[in-house]
Amino acid sequence: MKQTVLEIARVCACVAALFVCIEVPARAQSESPLPVAPGQTLFNKNCASCHVGPPRAERAPDLKTMMELTPESVLAALTTGNMVEPALGLSDDEKRAIAEYLGGRPLDPKNTGDAASMTNRCPSNPPPADPASGPAWNGWSASSGNSRFANAATAGLSGADVPKLKLKWAFGFPNGDTAFGQPAVVGGRIYVGAPHRRLRC
After folding, report:
1. Do the Cβ atoms of 74 and 99 come closer than 8 Å?
2. Strand partners for 185
3. Cα(95)–Cα(77) distance, rounded to whole angstroms?
4. Which helix (H) or strand (E) element contains residue 121?
5. Are 135 and 189 in contact (CB under 8 A)?
6. What is the model's pTM?
7. What is the pLDDT of residues 10-42, one digit of tens each?
């Protein structure tokens, strides 16, 4: 009888020790000593249910995708884009905090994306050429058939000229990562919709 009681006591002690071992790591995991950014806390409270889940809302970009955006792009989505309605309950400061958390850096305070702040601008600003003359690509296709093909007359060069082309200049969107729509070539200029409700020329 004594031996049976002792065996039961040993089993109870082992079970209790097992629960302690399981509980301590779980508690340590939930109570992380690492600091949490205010934007992360706001994101977890207001945004994670759709963008992290489970389950993640259909068509909602996941956290990894959003963390590849610039903070300016995130803020634009929260203030003027498709996230305006979900963000109605957030203050301006809270929106900025979420944008900076996802973008991984502070917002640009100097508005360097403005044309007046950009370097290497064209030294002159002549009026556009006649849109009806010269190479052009206006809209989704250069022809009404939507073939997305430009012949030699439209492009101003032939197929044999293409391998000879060299990069003359490149343009990066300041504080942006996406061009909205394809460029249009009209009157000797290129127009493209850029992030933050800007049109680049």
Report:
1. yes
2. 137, 190
3. 10
4. none
5. no
6. 0.55
7. 544 444 444 444 343 333 334 445 567 889 999
